Every structure is written in structure tokens, then in C-alpha cells.
Amino acid sequence: MPKNQNPVTQKSGVSTNVILTIAVVVVAVLVIGGVLLFNRSGDSGGGAGSGQPPVAAEVLRKPDSNVLTEAPDGKVTVTEFLDYQCSSCYQYYSQMTKKIENDYAGRITFVTRNYPLEMHPLGQHAARAAEAAALQGKYKEMYHALFDNWTAWATANAEELNSDEAKANAEFEKYAQQIGLDVNRFKQDMVSPNVQAKIDRDIADGKTAGVSGTPTLFINGRQFDQGNAQNMAEVDQAFRKQLDQELAK
After folding, report:
1. pLDDT tens, residue by residue, 96-137
2. CA distances from 115 to 47, 62, 102, 217, 224 (A)
3. Which of 62, 74, 137, 212 is deepest in the core (most CB within 10 A)?
């Protein structure tokens, strides 16, 4: 008996054509129902996970979490879990979050958390560079240096840097020097257990918050849903709409 045959169907006496017709109808109903459900659940306005309860503030931000801009009133907080080598994170940075940081400076609090993925071998290295810079009070400068030079280290020379730790260290030390860090201290902090512990804690908090990929952004505890946005311009529009709605409350 062929493996794909159903012995129950064989015994029933119902013709193969009838069975196929019924199967096609059932599949069509399921597909149409799924499409309708997807369209109903999608939010073209960029609702930030409106169907889910907000993630606790203490999960999304720790006392020592890195901040790009802070609002005195603390009314709206954005938290981004990112991987510095992630191409989507770079796309968000270059086409949205860098502008959001500037346009909403002083009006929102923008927190970043580390979430390096295993598929990006330099992601951990870059996260350590960012945290080492933070220990000298220059996280923001390193954050921008990593993304502004992203093509140079994350793609063009990624394979070479990944296979040669000395060259990778030299690349990030170059950025440390450019932003005015004490390079010797930077090199020590890059391999500090405390720096790695902070990155690991960020990853653990991300998992608790339901993060499964990068970038993942939260607005006042709710995961941002880009809805039916088809390009970064539409994602940016949806994100700003959600921010403005939260600011207006």
C-alpha cells in the first residue's frame, strides 16, 4: 500500500474525486478565514501591541540601562532591543530611530538594550564595545559610531574581523579613540565579566518581554506593531503616530 494512501478513505467507498473536492473546500475556507483574521488583527495605524498587556517597566529598563534621550516627565518611554550587526537594526537606525532620537529629544525617553543574535558573530563584540564606552559616559557616542560605520565592520570586513579577534579589537578600539575614550581602559572593560553580565541580563529581560528577533521596540511597555506598513517610510509614520498618541494622553 502506498504510504500516502489513507486506509480509512479506501474503506469508505467514497470516490477520490469527492474526497479531493471536500479537501479543497475545507482548505479554501481555512485560508480565507486566516486571511480575514490576519487583516482584522493588523493595525495599519501602527498600534503598539494593543492586544497584549504591557511589559513591566522594570523588565524593560534597569537603573543602569543605556539612554539616548530622556524626557523630564517620563511620560513616554521607548525601549529597543537591538543587535548592532543586524541589518534590520541598521535599516531602522538609518531610516527611523536616529531621526526619532533627534525629533523627539526631551519629549520621550529612549532606552536601548542589548540583544545580540547567535547568527551575528560580531554582535556580542559590538555590544561589549558599547557597554565599555558606557562605563566612560560615552554610550551614545559609541552607539552612533557603531551604526554610522556599520557597513565597514558589519558587512564589508565582517568575515575577516570574525576570524581575527585582534583585527576586530583594533576596529572597535579605533571608534573608541575617535570618540575620545581612554583606549586602555576601554580594552580592559571590553573583556570585563561585569560588561558581559550586563549583556546577558539584557538578553534575559528581552526573552521575558517576548523578544524573538531584532529590532524589537516597545512604547510604554507595549510592543510596537508596524501593522501593514510596506516600507520604512510607512513604518516611521506608524511609529510616530503611536508616539504622538501616547504624548497626547
Report:
1. 999 999 999 999 999 999 999 999 999 999 999 999 999 999
2. 23, 15, 23, 12, 17
3. 62
Pairwise CA distance, residues 35 & 213, whole Å: 24
pTM of model > 0.85? no
**Of residues 151, 113, 160, the one with CA closest to residue 169:** 160
Cell of 207: 526573552
Look up residue 152 and give its DSSP letter.
Answer: I
176-213: per-residue pLDDT in tens? 999 999 999 999 999 999 999 999 999 999 999 999 99
| Cell numbers describing residue 225 | 506593531
CA 155, CA 213: separation in Å to the nearest integer?
Answer: 19
Q: Are 86 and 117 in contact (CB under 8 A)?
A: yes
Q: Which three cell numbers mark 148?
A: 554610522
